[in-house]
């Protein structure tokens, strides 16, 4: 029997401010690709400046899928991303093109590569029932209920960790199966021949400089007014995933009078650097990853061309 030939897909990863967007657009202009955004902040409408969302000119050069798909009050999980990304990838391939997945949300990439266990979405009613029982009997009693139906999870989860105790019990009450049973079954079918690349800075100091310059540009582009509009809506708050995005939380706290202006700028830059550090930590342990160079101020164009040639050589 002839082995099935899987369609190609390209992953382009990297820390924030490393130059992924420009390289991805150039790849689309030279190859038969379409971009799917892999970014947990770009999914939100009305959050453009602080997320460094591709602007109108960039979108006209290369449309991006999975951006501006949710209101900031809505949540979006790695499972949601995997479902949506696979659908978009199949559509791109059906039109004879190659999916180019670009972004820095490593958990989303991991969900695609490694798959996810089929755990149910949170159920507010079930969760509220568990909270009520905890208030009435205590979390130790709730943990004992978990021990009766899922010894493995109950042994692993400390009774003083109410969030995880509640989630494990919630999963059982929704599905009738324990979290241990469900996590043993992982949907990891990725029907693509994936080529993985990452822009990985040689000099962290240069990336830090790029991050600082980019945030100051965001300020000049009126990032404050963008957050003011979100702040005044009245239905958003700092516990939402959207408002926990770097820069937005700090600007929100400035608008609330908890930070002065200089402290807001400083904390935003530091938080973005910390995000980049976490992203690079993910990448260091990533399997089958081809490393690309970060465009510098002096050699940006030459580096982009070099990176494109490397991708072309590997992908074919």
Q: What is the third-level CATH name, the topology of the largest domain? A: Rossmann fold
Mean pLDDT: 93
CATH superfamily of the largest domain: P-loop containing nucleotide triphosphate hydrolases
Structural class call reads alpha/beta
Whole-number count of domains: 2
Shape label? globular
CATH class (first level) name of the largest domain = Alpha Beta
Give the neighbour order of strands across the main sheet. Answer: 3-2-4-1-5-6
**What is the terminal-to-terminal distance?**
25 Å
Number of helices: 14
Number of strands: 6
Gyration radius over CA: 22 Å
* Poorly predicted segments: none
β-sheet strand percentage: 5-15%
The biggest sheet amounts to: 6 strands, parallel
Structure description:
There is one protein chain. The protein is of the alpha/beta class. The chain folds into 2 domains: 8-116 and 188-315, P-loop containing nucleotide triphosphate hydrolases (Rossmann fold), CATH 3.40.50; 124-183, Orthogonal Bundle (Histone, subunit A). It contains 14 helices and 6 strands. Strands 3-2-4-1-5-6 form a 6-stranded parallel sheet, with helices on both faces. α3 (78-94) crosses α4 (106-114) and α12 packs antiparallel against α13.
């Amino acid at each position: 029997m002839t082995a099935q030939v899987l369609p190609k897909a390209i992953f382009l990863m990297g820390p924030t401010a490393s130059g992924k967007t420009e390289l991805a657009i150039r790849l689309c202009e030279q190859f038969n690709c379409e971009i799917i955004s892999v970014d947990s902040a770009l999914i939100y409408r009305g959050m453009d400046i602080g997320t460094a969302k591709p602007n109108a000119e960039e979108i006209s050069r290369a449309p991006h899928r999975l951006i501006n798909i949710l209101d900031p009050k809505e949540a979006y999980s790695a499972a949601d991303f995997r479902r949506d990304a696979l659908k978009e990838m199949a559509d791109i391939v059906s039109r004879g093109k190659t999916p180019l997945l670009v972004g820095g949300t490593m958990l989303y990439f991991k969900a695609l590569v490694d798959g996810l266990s089929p755990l149910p979405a949170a159920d507010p009613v079930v969760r509220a029932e568990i909270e009520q029982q905890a208030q009435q009997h205590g979390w130790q009693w709730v943990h004992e209920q978990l021990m009766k139906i899922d010894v493995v999870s109950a042994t692993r989860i400390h009774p003083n960790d109410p969030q995880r105790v509640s989630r494990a019990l919630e999963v059982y009450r929704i599905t009738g199966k324990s979290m241990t049973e469900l996590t043993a079954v992982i949907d990891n079918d990725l029907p693509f021949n994936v080529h993985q690349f990452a822009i990985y800075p040689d000099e962290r100091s240069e990336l830090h400089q790029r991050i600082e310059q980019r945030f100051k540009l965001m300020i000049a582009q009126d990032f404050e007014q963008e957050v003011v509009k979100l702040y005044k809506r009245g239905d958003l708050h700092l516990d939402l995933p959207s408002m926990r995005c770097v820069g937005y939380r700090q600007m929100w706290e400035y608008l609330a009078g908890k930070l002065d202006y200089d402290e807001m700028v400083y904390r935003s830059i530091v938080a973005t650097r910390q995000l980049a550090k976490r992203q690079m930590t993910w990448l260091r342990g990533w399997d089958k990853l081809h490393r690309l160079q970060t465009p510098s101020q002096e050699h940006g164009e030459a580096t982009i061309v070099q990176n494109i040639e490397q991708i072309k050589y590997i992908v074919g």
